[in-house]
Amino acid sequence: MDGSARLHEEFVVGVRIQPAEAIESRSDEERGFSARLDAIMRHWSRNGRQISKPLKVTFICFFALTVISLTGLRLFSEYQHLTHRLEKTIETAKSFLSHQQKIGTDGLEKGLLGLSVNQQLIDAFKSDDPYALQQVTAHLFPEMTDLHQITEFSVYNSDKHRIISAHKAITRPDDQPNFLLGLAAETESVSRGLELGDNGTTTISAVRPWSVDGKFLGFLKLGMEIRRPLVFIGRTLQADVIEVHKTRSLIPGTAPADARNGWITFGNVAYRTVGDTELPPHIGPLVESDLDQLSRFDRIVFDNGAVKIAYSFPLLFANGASSSHLVLLQDITPQAKAFVLHTGISLLIAGLIAFAAWLVFNCLARNLQASVVKTRRKLEEEVEANTDALKHSQDRLVEAQKIASLGSWERDLQNGSLYWSNEMYRIAGLPLSLSSFEAREEFFKLIPPWQRMAVETELDQAILKCGQFNFEHQLIRKDGETRHLHVRGYVQAGEDGAAAKVFGTTHDVTEHHNSQERSKRLANILEASLNEIYIFDPKTLLYQHANQCARDNIGYSMEELADLPAWEVLGNNDEQLLRETLRPLLDGATSLLSLEGTHQRKDGSEYPVEVRIQLHETQNTSLLVAICNDVTERTARERETQAARHAAERIAYFDELTGLPNRAACQNDAAVAFAESNESKPAFIIHMDIDNFKRINDTLGHSAGDACLEETGERLRTCCIDLGKGYRWGGDEFVIIAVDSDADPEELCQRLNIVMRAPMEFEGNQIWPSVSLGVACCPNDGEDFATLLVHADLALYRSKDDGKDRWSYFTSDMKIDSDEEARMEQELRHALRRDEFFLVFQPQVNIRTQQVTGIEALVRWQHPTRGMLGPGSFLPIVEKTSLAAPLGQVVIDKALEAASIWQASQLDFGRIAVNLSPSHLTSGTLLDDFNNAMAKHGVLPEFITAEVLESVFLDSERSNNSEVLEELHNLGVHIELDDFGTGYASLSHVADLPINGLKIDRSFTAQILTDAKKEIVVNHLIHLARSLDIDIVCEGVETDSQFDRLRMMGNFSVQGYLIARPMPFENISNWLTSAQADLSFGLA
């Protein structure tokens, strides 16, 4: 590579020439600790402005270190002195204890020697009289206690068994002899030492073998509590003495074990003070711990202002056990006070000396600081003046570069130095923390690879020729943004004619470049737009530009359009009208004009357009831009959509069969007619229903039903003229809304009642229709459509209940009845869930043999608040709702359950009779309910009677009832026609129906004695049944006279109060058990 290329590599790519910053950084590293210390001092003294601060801190640190050292030395000296005293005290305590123990044992040995030769004691022992021995020891023990502080006196036989103790002793476990006793027996001499006495306290004990005249009698033992010697030690050493025992070594029942007599238990130790002093609170943890393992400071205790230190030493028992020790609390309060006083005085003297030195030092430092500050301020003012001028000039350059997005750079090719302005960093998106060399490397990496070669070539040529360079390139910054840069500069030659320095500028022309690109892109979009776009002069209205779509659609070239004014292209060809239309836009009253019109092509044809015009103003010119959309296809689609909408509305709001408005139309019209803002609301609404419409569909077919509806719609339109408007609500229901507030509902009802009765013809069949009407008047019955419709519906139900083919006006009692029925329905549903229904049973007996032929199951309701309710209180509601099937299933299940229990008890009940609901018959579940119950309870169908009303066979809406009963009959269930004679059944029907029996209604039985005609009817019915081979049950037999009269008519069954009233299950079961004995009527 030649020289120019090498220089270019160093300038653009390489890093061979080391930057000045790197050289300076290496020199700082070489200086090491000294450089870092200098930096700290510069920062601490605010770069030399506050030299007094580090001087003062140094002085204070020196003084503090001196005081701390002297105080520490003082503490160490006091600690050594205290330790020496404590060790001396411990040795003294041990010496005192050993001395006191020797004195005690000597006294005990003397006492044992005196006792061993005491003749009274010898005689009492030899007499083998325990009482005599007790008297002697009791006499001797007080004397020894007073004279020698003896606390224990015991006599043992030769087998080392205790014979007597003059003191109160606690029996040791297993009553085993202690160590000293065994030692005396082994050595045949006096044994002595410390041990736990019989009362659980530390005792100095001595045991002597007892021989008289060469004969071995046993052992004598004396003991003295150590408490008194310990008190003497405590007073001598001026310390609190604490006796401590491990709880595991204590004898149960003793004072230490039970924490009595001043003993305290804590953790695994028991302790007490041997003097009269009170122990410090919370001393227990310290007593329990091993004091030898604690430091001196951990053994210090504060007790009511006194400072005490604890130390311990063990009590060496004769058996070698180490379960007890003594703790001494030594009062060191005077030493502590002396230490604090001496230390305080030393610190005070040191403080006074330091304060005096501080005053002198501070005065000298202040004078020195003032001199330094004065000199430095003068120099800084001169530097600041020069710096401000330079900075002002530099700031202006920086701001100028920032405004122009122009960065400058300079490179010395001879010494390798490089300068970048701040704007260069901003253009490249690099942080200012980078050095110029690092920034240069990053900058070069951001140039796209396909442009780097071109940049290198331009710079190579400029360096080689020492000439100028001028080129553009892209830069992809780290945030992904692409910038377009324009680089200009020149290369300066040195004295030798070779390239020496490079000066350059980098201009960020991204916005200008993007603006040009955007203009081109918008021009292309404008030209390629599918809308017609025209640009024309607002004054002359001459076209200046039209895009390709506009030219193609209008048929003119751009040259032709340039000579045409806008109004000639518009269909109206009126200049004045166009200028008036544009005036609000030109005057600034609006920023957008939207209008519709026609354009005229070059061939003279016209087409509809939608036009949006805007005024675009620049500094020098104003232009009108019109965007036109050819709406030929849209207009056609709108016409098609409008036609489809009309057709859809016709389908959505009119009933195709009757030609009347439908429910949706009715609701829409009602929302307007009954709006709160409408002061003249319709006078009424009528709810109309065709009577027996299902019969028409079932007998003549649905085509006949459609024909009937179509004719009804035509008649309704005729009747409503001038009074109301009819709507088909759904099915065979219609709604009529009055035309105004003065319309007469009575007149309209009369019209409908008369006109709707006229017969209709359908395929040779004549239909005689009728309608039921319900009327609700506004405002008496409500002011909104929803309320009026509900009330009209209730009135319609009243017309249906009253026999149909009539009209009824809404009254308030209808609402009450409706609400009561709704409440009753809710309670019935709850009753089914809570199993509140139960059965009562009434027997049927043969009038001649008095045998039970059947039992009728009658449902009752145990209401939670109203008590027991009969079927008349709730069955009408059940029939109107969907509850008939669930209630019927419950009745069938409970009835067959009772029958199964009677069968299991071998009670003859004939058949169990169940009343069937007409609605249950049509529910589709009746057969399943019977089959499931029979399978569940094991009752055969021949033991079941199903009672049905004669009306179920005559109701056209329940035409399949006969089929259901036929299937039930085929199963073997006995079918009876209930309440025969009260309905519309003829005798001819009886022969055709699938029945096995008739029940003569109680209304005939009640009048059989007073009405001859009724008696004849009953007699004929009985004979008719006999002829048809079907059974008879006569209901309502309440007197003997009725029973006798019926008995003369034949052999059949009777039922009534004379036989038995309806009874609960338990009562009817008892009745069946005693039935033969109790049925004594009618045979006389």
TrEMBL record:
<dbReference type="InterPro" id="IPR000160">
    <property type="entry name" value="GGDEF_dom"/>
</dbReference>
<feature type="domain" description="PAS">
    <location>
        <begin position="518"/>
        <end position="589"/>
    </location>
</feature>
<dbReference type="Pfam" id="PF13426">
    <property type="entry name" value="PAS_9"/>
</dbReference>
<dbReference type="InterPro" id="IPR000014">
    <property type="entry name" value="PAS"/>
</dbReference>
<keyword id="KW-0472">Membrane</keyword>
<feature type="transmembrane region" description="Helical">
    <location>
        <begin position="339"/>
        <end position="361"/>
    </location>
</feature>
<keyword id="KW-1133">Transmembrane helix</keyword>
<dbReference type="InterPro" id="IPR001610">
    <property type="entry name" value="PAC"/>
</dbReference>
<feature type="domain" description="GGDEF">
    <location>
        <begin position="681"/>
        <end position="812"/>
    </location>
</feature>
<feature type="domain" description="PAC">
    <location>
        <begin position="469"/>
        <end position="521"/>
    </location>
</feature>
<feature type="domain" description="EAL">
    <location>
        <begin position="821"/>
        <end position="1076"/>
    </location>
</feature>
<dbReference type="InterPro" id="IPR043128">
    <property type="entry name" value="Rev_trsase/Diguanyl_cyclase"/>
</dbReference>
<dbReference type="InterPro" id="IPR000700">
    <property type="entry name" value="PAS-assoc_C"/>
</dbReference>
<feature type="transmembrane region" description="Helical">
    <location>
        <begin position="57"/>
        <end position="76"/>
    </location>
</feature>
<dbReference type="InterPro" id="IPR035919">
    <property type="entry name" value="EAL_sf"/>
</dbReference>
<dbReference type="InterPro" id="IPR035965">
    <property type="entry name" value="PAS-like_dom_sf"/>
</dbReference>
<keyword id="KW-0812">Transmembrane</keyword>
<dbReference type="Pfam" id="PF00990">
    <property type="entry name" value="GGDEF"/>
</dbReference>
<dbReference type="Pfam" id="PF00563">
    <property type="entry name" value="EAL"/>
</dbReference>
<dbReference type="Pfam" id="PF08447">
    <property type="entry name" value="PAS_3"/>
</dbReference>
<dbReference type="InterPro" id="IPR029787">
    <property type="entry name" value="Nucleotide_cyclase"/>
</dbReference>
<protein>
    <submittedName>
        <fullName>EAL domain-containing protein</fullName>
    </submittedName>
</protein>
<dbReference type="InterPro" id="IPR013655">
    <property type="entry name" value="PAS_fold_3"/>
</dbReference>
<dbReference type="InterPro" id="IPR001633">
    <property type="entry name" value="EAL_dom"/>
</dbReference>
<dbReference type="InterPro" id="IPR052155">
    <property type="entry name" value="Biofilm_reg_signaling"/>
</dbReference>
